[in-house]
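Notes to self after the Tuesday call (sharing in case useful).
The group wants a holo model before anyone commits to mutagenesis around the pocket. I volunteered. Ligand is zinc ion. Logging inputs and output together so the record is complete.
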Amino acid sequence: MIRTYIDDSWSAEDDNILLLAGYAQKVPVWAAFSDAWKAELSKEPAIEYCKMSEAESRKEQFEGWSERKRDKKLADLARVIVEYDPWSIECFVSQKQYKEILEPVIAYDLRGPYMPCFHGIIVSLARYHASTGITLPTDFIFDEQGKIGAEAVLWYEEIKANQKPEIRALMGSTPEFKDDKKVLPLQAADMIAWHLRRRKENRNARENREVMEILSPLLRVEVEVTETVLRKMADDMASLPHIGLTQGKRGSIKRHMVGGKLPEMIALVCKNKQCGETFDVMKDYLAQTGKAPCPFCGQERYYIPWLARLIKWIFRI
Ligand SMILES: [Zn+2]
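Result:
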């Protein structure tokens, strides 16, 4: 089994990119890495954990450190990453472009720049693995403090279901969210995501960070959610029948979700004011027909906002 640890980094510069990045490696190697990372953290000057935002501002764990002292610590930690030879995956999107192109048409439950990036990361990594003959599936671990929500878990199952069998076979179980202070490879993901995001900012583009030099021998898989991809997604989305019903808060199906998933049976309240009865509909029926006739008054309402159906449609790209 391969495990991939991913962190998100958000820019406040230029086009406000969102970048997801992290490292993949076999599970036993990660176990050895974690011991080595912990040992490196404990070396004098010791820190309990490494977080790039704290290192950069020299606060918290790096409080009172000189830049030189901080840089040396980061370089030593980066060398630990290189020693265990993980390969990285990164995907970014311009939030400015996302807002202009996709946000005006996107279904409420899919809104936010995270979704196209999340899709880009997991599908691209599986495709890369397939192209290199890797046969082990990949699990994903995300930093629980990131902005990714429970809906990503639902996206994952649907994205997976929409891949070719040989790609699907390389996608592991539902992503998990862990504490980066306890799950140490997430600190390596933070390190690479932070540096890659920073390098994409115009004012920092020429900056030469020692950490990036040290990490440069490792294999990188890069993906960009380009303007073309966003336009394709937006066109696809806009042409969906009844798309208007999925936009805005009222179009959300999340209120039907239990523990991050839609139950087999969904309880609906009849919208006919004279009726107002509650009845259950099978989610598969909703997904296929997009409508639910009330068994009490017979009024038929469209419930096209079935998230999985939308995702199936979007993710054909
Ligand atoms: Zn009714």
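Two things stood out.
Strands lie at 2-10, 17-26, 87-94, 138-143, 176-178, 220-225, 265-269, 278-282, 291-293, 300-302.
The first helix runs from residue 27 to 42.
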